[in-house]
């Protein structure tokens, strides 16, 4: 279980997270939703300790991220919001780099690369420089890298962005498989159909504040006949704020 306690993040004068407190259960798919600038990436970057919160604490199974950073990082596979990294490396060199960072055993690494590169139909291009790849292909390279260590916790920032329908389908399938093995998947998305289809639990953010944290099924039950998209849009709308505040307090 991951617990965020009153996490605040300030960039200069901009308060990106205004005291976020929420719980991410183990063995579930957990989604972060919110408009542009709501604080999804900041929260995700805080979880993977790329960004240090200005104040507040994050606990992984009771261990404070501040004190157990390296140990916790080893448990995480991270897909950033942009795949434009390590562009001068080939896909294979990038995966080797990740494998070395996680101390992966050679045969296990080769097996994982073989399976995942075949699944995402990128095997033939694995010795090409990432720079020469399309956005979707770069995304596939990063996704494969994040899965190589078979992490307990997979954290993906808008992972479906730019993927073709087959790759998006395969990735969603992998996310489901991951939780079936008792592992945890955390991701952000703007695609509400995907969130409805995939997520067990959600956090909806608005301008750095939490306006819902809880199960998708409960949310849908409370709004019979409505899609997550309709519910989300009405929650985000300012007219609904009082009601939403009530719901958060109920958590
Ligand atoms: N490095 C930074 N320096 C200054 N401000 C930042 C920085 N990173 C994010 N912000 C600001 O913090 C707020 C939250 O940004 P964040 O990227 O977390 O939002 P998001 O919900 O992921 O948005 P999107 O859906 O557009 O990716 C925004 O107002 C953004 O401009």
TrEMBL record:
InterPro entries hit by this protein: AAA+_ATPase (IPR003593), ABC_transporter-like_ATP-bd (IPR003439), ABC_transporter-like_CS (IPR017871), ABC_Transporter_VariousFunc (IPR051782), P-loop_NTPase (IPR027417)
Source organism, top-level taxon: Bacteria
One Pfam family matching this protein: ABC_tran
GO molecular function, one term: ATP hydrolysis activity
Domain ABC transporter: 2-232
Organism, scientific name: Vagococcus carniphilus
Keywords: ATP-binding, Nucleotide-binding, Transport
Protein name: 3-dehydroquinate dehydratase
């Amino acid at each position: 279980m991951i617990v965020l306690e009153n996490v605040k993040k300030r960039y200069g004068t901009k308060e990106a997270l205004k005291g976020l407190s929420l719980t991410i259960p183990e063995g579930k798919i957990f989604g972060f939703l919110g408009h542009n600038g709501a604080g999804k990436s900041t929260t995700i970057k805080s979880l993977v300790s790329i960004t240090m919160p200005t104040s507040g604490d994050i606990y992984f199974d009771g261990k404070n991220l501040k004190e157990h950073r390296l140990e916790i990082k080893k448990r995480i596979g991270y897909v950033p919001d942009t795949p434009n990294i390590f562009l001068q490396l080939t896909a294979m060199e990038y995966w080797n780099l990740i494998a070395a960072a996680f101390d992966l055993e050679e045969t296990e690494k080769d097996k994982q690369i073989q399976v995942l590169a075949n699944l995402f139909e990128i095997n033939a291009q694995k010795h090409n420089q990432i720079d020469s790849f399309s956005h979707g292909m770069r995304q596939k390279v990063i996704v494969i890298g994040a899965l190589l260590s078979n992490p307990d916790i997979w954290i993906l920032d808008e992972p479906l962005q730019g993927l073709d329908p087959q790759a998006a389908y395969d990735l969603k399938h992998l996310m489901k498989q991951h939780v079936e093995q008792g592992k945890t998947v955390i991701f952000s998305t703007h695609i509400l159909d995907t969130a409805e289809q995939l997520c067990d639990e959600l956090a909806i953010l608005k301008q750095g504040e939490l306006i819902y944290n809880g199960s998708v099924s409960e949310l849908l039950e409370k709004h019979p006949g409505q899609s997550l998209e309709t519910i989300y849009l009405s929650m985000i709308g300012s007219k609904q704020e009082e009601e939403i505040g009530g719901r958060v307090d109920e958590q």
